[in-house]
């Protein structure tokens, strides 16, 4: 499999959570493609549907949540497979999960078992998907821990999660995700709880491993600095929908949606001298009461009554950029004229 070869297609994906008081539409019609060897960044505030999208791809949405619409077509197993139609507990999804598509979860302290050694957990992952002996699986685990830069991996086989530092636990999670050389690695905020030095090391490691295994990476984060360093293409999500889809350069130099622009204004820049970073007004609305029309309109500085409360389709701005905003051209013409003044 080579770069530019389609690996995964997500088409009009909807994931709902049927709660007692309401139905929460956690993912609402999301569509995107992931190519082999490329990195897709998904960015947005907490509650926008990033992690639920990732879990849907792995068939890991649990009740009261369920996929209610759409397709998740995986092309890496010889013939296209619609993961959305597979039994989440069945043999077919188990062959794909962790073998072809693996995931680094958001918090390794809660993802790693507290009562099993690191070796037990890594060896089990190998034995589930590979027809090898336990000693061979142990050798694979040791080799992978060496690759991710963990010292004395033979000793770590008998260690428990609480005996490791945050950076070491994160490296163990990456090693576990790579046990079967997956074609797609989903990284759900893998560096959020780490200090900046360890974060940089983890990102460098992921890029090196991507080159070595020709993996595609779906990188989920709220950190736009990480997205700039890692991603080829970017999806900006807000309350279950894509509000902007573009390549990484367009996102940083030509962001068109007011939400994307607000996110960019809220991060520090080396070329600007400011006293205080701008904050996005308000907070993410309750997902049981999503505003009609553009869900971002209660927080948007460009809100304009009925226009923003009308349905908001994705607008094809160019062959590299799509934006969900009814006032798109009006807003950006105003911004251009303000900059000229």
What does this 3D model show about the protein?
This protein is of the alpha/beta class. It has two domains: 6-231, 3-Layer(aba) Sandwich (Rossmann fold), CATH 3.40.50.300; 261-340, no CATH class. Helix content is 34%, strand content 23%. The chain contains 13 helices and twelve strands. It has helices at 50-57, 91-96, 108-111, 118-129, 134-147, 153-156, 166-177, 196-213, 224-230, 248-254, 258-265, 305-308, 328-340; strands spanning 6-18, 23-35, 39-43, 65-74, 81-82, 101-104, 184-188, 216-221, 233-238, 241-247, 315-318, 321-323. The strands form two sheets. Strands 6-7-8-3-9-10-12-11 form an eight-stranded mixed sheet, sandwiched between helices. Helix 4 packs across helix 5 and helix 5 (134-147) crosses helix 7. The longest helix is centred in the middle third of the chain and has 18 residues, at 196-213. The protein is globular. The N and C termini lie far apart (51 Å). The model has no long low-confidence stretch (mean pLDDT 87).
Throw out a few tags for this protein:
single chain, 341 residues, alpha/beta, Rossmann fold, 2 domains, 8-stranded mixed beta sheet, 4-stranded antiparallel beta sheet, 12 strands, globular
């Amino acid at each position: 499999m080579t770069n530019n070869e389609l690996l995964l297609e997500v088409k009009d994906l909807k994931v709902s959570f049927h709660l007692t008081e309401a139905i929460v539409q956690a993912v609402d019609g999301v569509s995107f493609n992931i190519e082999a060897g490329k990195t897709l960044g998904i960015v947005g505030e907490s509650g926008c549907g990033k992690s639920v999208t990732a879990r849907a791809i792995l068939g890991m949405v649990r009740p009261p949540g369920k996929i209610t619409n759409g397709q998740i077509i995986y092309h890496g197993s010889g013939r296209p497979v619609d993961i959305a139609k597979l039994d989440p507990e069945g043999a077919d999804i188990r062959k794909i999960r962790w073998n072809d598509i693996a995931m680094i979860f958001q918090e390794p302290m809660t993802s790693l078992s507290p009562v099993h050694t690191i070796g037990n957990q890594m060896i089990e992952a190998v034995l589930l998907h590979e027809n090898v002996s336990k000693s061979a699986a142990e050798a694979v685990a040791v080799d992978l821990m060496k690759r991710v830069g963990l010292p004395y991996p033979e000793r770590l086989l008998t260690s428990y999660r609480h005996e490791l530092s945050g950076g070491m636990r994160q490296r163990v999670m990456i090693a576990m995700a790579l046990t079967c050389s997956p074609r797609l690695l989903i990284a759900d905020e893998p560096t959020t709880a780490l200090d900046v030095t360890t974060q940089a090391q983890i990102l460098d490691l992921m890029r090196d491993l991507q080159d070595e295994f020709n993996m595609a990476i779906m990188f989920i984060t709220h950190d736009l600095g990480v997205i700039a360093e890692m991603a080829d293409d970017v999806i900006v999500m807000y309350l279950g929908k894509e509000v902007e889809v573009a390549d990484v350069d367009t996102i940083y130099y030509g962001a068109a949606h007011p939400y994307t622009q607000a996110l960019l204004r809220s991060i520090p820049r080396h070329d600007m001298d400011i006293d205080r970073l701008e904050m996005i007004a308000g907070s993410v609305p309750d997902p049981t009461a999503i505003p009609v029309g553009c869900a971002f309109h209660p927080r948007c500085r460009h809100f304009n009554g009925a226009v923003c409360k009308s349905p908001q389709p994705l607008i094809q701005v160019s062959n590299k950029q799509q934006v969900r905003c009814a006032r798109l051209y009006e807003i950006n013409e105003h911004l251009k004229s303000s900059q000229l003044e």
